[in-house]
Known about the structure:
The protein is mainly alpha-helical. The protein has helices spanning 2-23, 32-35, 51-54, 56-59. Keywords: Signal.
Amino acid sequence: xxxxxxxxxxxxxxxxxxxxxxxxxxxxxxxxxxxxxxxxxxxxxxxxxxxxxxxxxxxxxxxxxxxxxxxxxxxxxxxx
Length: 80
């Protein structure tokens, strides 16, 4: 009986978690303006993290050490 109750509780908890992941619900990526902490219209390495920081040198096509809006890769589509 206890095993059945534990199994049922596990299934219910799993079912409540899975739909969010199955749909791919994620928050929208931050906008350029949100990333541009100092408001200078350019993104420096200090203002970035994750994939943008990892690919910084590839994205910095003019080699000036900052990223402009035109140098950023296209943002992933946000599913609602």
